[in-house]
Amino acid sequence: MIKEAFKEVFRPQFHFTPAANWMNDPNGMVYYQGEYHLCYQYHPNGTTWGPMHWGHAVSKDLVHWEHLPVALEPDENGFVFSGSVVVDYHDTSGFFSGGSGLVAIFTHADTYPNSETPRQRQSIAYSLDKGRTWEKYEGNPVLSDEEIIDFRDPKVIWHEGTKKWTLVLAAGDHIRIYLSSNLKEWSFASQFGKDEGSHDGVWECPDLFELPVDGDEEYKKWVLIVSLGDNPNIPEGSRTQYFIGDFDGETYSNDHSKDTILWLDHGRDNYAGVTWSDMTDGRRVFIGWMSNWKYANVTPTSTWRSAMTIPRTLSLSTFADDVRLTQQPVEEIRSLRQEKYKCQDRQIEPGQNLLSDVEGDLFEIVAEFEVGNASEFGFKLRKSAEEETVVGYNALDSTLYIDRERSGIVDFNPAFGCMHDTQLRPDNRRIQMQIFLDWSSIEVFANKGKLVMTDLIFPDSKSQGLELFSVGGSTRLIRLEVYTLESIYKSRQSSKELHI
Ligand code: FRU
Asked: I need a surface site. Which of 27, 41, 251, 421 has the fewest CB within 10 A?
C-alpha cells in the first residue's frame, strides 16, 4: 500500500489531504513551539461523511505535513465536530501546572436522550505534549443552550483589550459571542448577524480576528468570517462570507450596510475556512476545505476524499475607498517552484499559443496583462482534444471566470460542470493572475489577491496541454512566469510517520 500512497489519480501533490478516508473542515489550527498544527473533520472508517473525529497533522513550513494519529475521538457525549485550539500560555485553565499547553474547544454532537433531536454542546480537551495526546476535560460539556439546535463550531481567541478568552460560535442564523477567564466557564456576551449579510444557508464555522488596514498598525479592523451551508436552490452551494467592522471585547459591529455581502472566495470549492491561532510572526494565515457540500460526498476520488486549499496570508487593503480582505498564497509555497518558462512584453495574437511546448499538471503561473482590444484572454489548462479548464478575463463585461464545463469528470453532480464569473475591474488597465494548478484543483489569485477563485477539477491524466489565448483582438502580456511545482511527496514519508 505504501508504494502507491499519495500517487493515486487526482491525489493533490501540494495541497494537504488525509492519508486515507474522508475529510471536511479544518479544525484546531494553532502554531506552537515551531509547529503548525492542522486538525480536520475526519471519518477514519470511510470515504464519506460519518462519525466525526479530529484527524491531525503537523508542519514546520505549512507545505510539507507529517500525519499524526487521530487527536479526538467520539465519546459518550457524541461525535467531535468543528472547533479550535489555543495556546494557554499562562495556565488560565489550570491544566498545565503553571506552564503552558494546548486547549481544544470543539462541538460535541449527539441527540437528546430518547429523542432524535440533535444536540450540540461545546467541550474542551487539553494536551501536555505538544498535541501528541489529548485528555478530555471531566467537566464536559462546558457550554450548551437547549433552545438552539444548530449551536456549533467554536473559535476561541484571546482578547488583549479585555484580557478575556472570547468564543464565537454559529447558532443557525447568527453568531453568538461568549467570554471566559479560564476556558471552562463561559458567559454570554452578545449576538450578531440575524439580519446581516447572506442567509442563503445555515451559518457555520465563524472566525474573528483583527488586521491592520493597508499595513497601518495604528488603524485596525476586525474581520468576522462566516460560512454558509448548502442550499439546494443556490447553484453556488456552500460558501463563505466575511464582515469588516469593530469588536470591543463584547459586541461586534459591521461597518457595512446590513445587505452588503462580501464573499471570501468567488470559486465553488472553498468552505469552512478559518485561521491559525497564536502565530508569532504577525501573519494571519487561512486555510479552507477545498470542496462544497453540494457534491463533497461524491467527488470521483478513491482512497481518500477532499483536500485543503493552499494556506493563504490575509490582509486588509483599501480599494476605491473601501476596504476588502485580500489573500496571498503563503510565501513558503515558493520553495516548490522549478522554473519552466519566462517572458516579458509580448503581444498575444488570436490563434497563437506561446505555451504550445509546455505540458504538465502541476503549475504555478504568474501573469500580468494589459487590457487591450481583445474581448477575452487567459489560460486553458489540462488541455486535450476533449478537455480543458479555462481561466479567463472577459474584457467586455470586466469579469474573471473559470470554465470547468469540459474540465474532465463533471457528471457526479449537475451543478459541477459550469462556468462562473465575478466582476474584476482592471487595476490601471492591468489584470494580474497567479494560478496554482494541482492534480484536482485550480486556485486563481487576481490583482494581488483582491479576488480569489478556488475550484476542483477532475481531468484525465493524459490532458496535459497549456494554452495562453487572446480572442477578438490582441493582448499585451506584460510578464509571464510559469513554474512547475515539485510534489510534496518527492521525498516520501515512512509508513510509520503516515500512520496508515
Ligand atoms: C461545516 C460543518 C460544521 C460541523 C462539521 C461537521 O462543514 O457542517 O458546521 O461542525 O461540518 O462535520
From this structure: 251
Q: How far is CA 287 from CA 69, 159, 441, in A?
A: 21, 22, 15
Contact present, 344 and 481 (Cβ < 8 Å): no
Q: Ligand 1, atom 8: nearest CA belongs to which residue?
A: 204
Q: Which of 21, 22, 23, 25 should be mutated for ligand 1, with most atoms under 8 A from CB?
A: 25
Ligand 1 centroid to Cα of residue 265, in Å, is 19
CA atoms within 13 A of residue 485's CA, in its CB half-sphere: 24
Q: Is 421 exposed, middle or buried (0-12, 13-18, 19+ CB in 10 A)?
A: middle
Eight-class DSSP state of 498: H
Q: What is the pLDDT of residue 2?
A: 42
How big is the CA angle at 478 (ends 373 and 473), to the nearest 5 degrees? 20
Q: What is the DSSP code (8-state) at residue 355?
A: T
Distance CA 385, CA 37 (A): 42
* Model pLDDT for residues 324-339, shown as the tens digit of each residue: 999 999 999 999 999 8
Residues 456/290, Cβ–Cβ less than 8 Å: yes
Using CB distances shorter than 6 Å, the residues near ligand 1 are: 24-25, 41, 52, 81-82, 107, 152-153, 204-205, 272
Please state the three-class secondary structure of 58-74 as a single string.
EECCCCCCEEEEEEECC
Q: Please provide residue 447's backbone torsions phi and psi, each rounded to the nearest 5 degrees.
A: 40, 65
Examine the pLDDT at 127 and tell me if it is beyond 90: yes
- Residue type for position 349: E
CA of 195 to the centre of ligand 1 (A): 22
Task: Give percent helix, percent strand, percent coil of the chain, each to the nearest 5.
Answer: 5, 50, 45
